[in-house]
## 1
Amino acid sequence: MSRKYKFGDNDKLYFISFAVVYWIDLFIRNEYKEIMLESWRFCQREKDLEIYGWCIMTSHVHMIVGSKGRALDKIVGEMKSYTSRSLRKAITQHPGESRRAWMMWMMKRAGMKNGNNNDWQLWQQHNKPLEILNSEMFIKNLNTFTRWRKHMN
């Protein structure tokens, strides 16, 4: 499968974004955000993921990442797979999740439309990795994360 955006050199830093299918506002609950943060900490410890900046929005995530070890596309793919399963479990078990049936229906619908999945999909397929070409680009993205995070709190 050819994509316009791909990870290239693993020694470079990348700005990545990935979104929940249909832009569902999943991350309005702190419990779901914490699943993302726990996954990132695990990937830092066990998979050589380097995180330089991040922002969890209500329906998507932005990060600046790198890795001196494993291939970034593999790390991000494994992270998305793990968080998809963990978030699905959290949605089904959260006692106060009033949107459960609707979200599960939407994610099942997305999974059925995608031949890469069996029956369910949480994340959109792409990550849109953009190589950070210079320090100005790095600082610009990092400052943007800082502004977004201030508005989210």
## 2
Amino acid sequence: MSLAVSLLLPLLGLQAEAPSFSKDGRVTAAYYYLLPGAKPETDFLEMEKAGIDVALVDFAGDPQALDPLVAALDALVKQKKETPRLGVYLKPGAKVDLGAADAFYDRVPKRHAARVDGRLLLWLGPAPANADGLDEAVQRLREPPFLVAEVSWKGKPDRSYALGALRGFALDLPVVSVSPGTLDREDGKTYERNWYKAVRLEPRMVVLESWNGAADGVAETPERKRKYLDLTHRFTRDYKVNEKIVLPKGKWTAATQVAYTSVYNPHEEGLKPVATEEGLFDTVKLRGFEGLSTKENKKGPVRRLCFDVDDSFCYFETRSFMVAVEFLDLGEGAFSLEYDSGDRTLPAEQRVVKSAGSVRYSGTGSWKTETFRLPDAAFGNGQPGGSDFRLSIENRGLAVRSVMVLKQ
């Protein structure tokens, strides 16, 4: 009998269901793309070393494409290596069909399938325009999944997140999305700031927006070598033990104020304007001085001037500031200031655009300075384009020649 049992144990192990992650635990995941020339055995080994729990496979519906991934995991198990689990990442169309999730888990053995709270993990990318019927599509699956969906979906997911690479910012949600950046990674500083924010927010899950993407991945390449693998290992460790990351000091760390001015050079002294879809601007000459002026945009009647505070001055650390705006007081109407706040009483979407009030034009025709008080600013790059606050006006233009941010 003992011999028979010993012979059956390996088979039982191959058929066993992998332990489920707790819905209240700290889970790390990363998007994994089925790219030509991919080396899944190497990738999965590095994922485990870096502390990644789940490889979210960008699945287009071909079950055979999963076979190399399963073979790679089995090979690592035979070498007595720990491995990440496989979860399905789908990007459905407007007519929502999630049947690919059933096909995915039919092909992935239970021993490698990712479960959270005892349910198979289903992860959805951003919703397409006019998408509808998510809840009904979930009900058509063979078993209820643990559903993680981008905030653009209308439905009732178990967890939600905001894709920072798509939106230009990342929201404080139960799942926080992090990325090392694409074109300008600032030698790892962008990645460090994203993880700093994630660790401070203490979410239930953190997802890397790409493991093996050429432009936005963290996997080893001849150009970036192991830099981002080593950083990922460090940050996932800090996240799981709730050890706060300390950001390095920079040019504006000890400063009491930062400013943008079109009057003097350099214009940017720790504060810079950021162009976004709603925040287009020109440099123009008005009343004998150069200034920034809002432009019309295709998004609607609201025009904005968006500003990014240098991260060495303040980054995701709630404190009080005063913002002084010098503007051309011409005509009628009013403009407002909205800022990325640390007000946890507000929903995540509202927290990053908290109002600091508005200023009405008095029609003097001269340059005028008004101040806004921000008692709980976080300046965590939470607004579109990675900006920290914005000046907004409707159905007319706004011209400013200086903006100053002072610590209180």
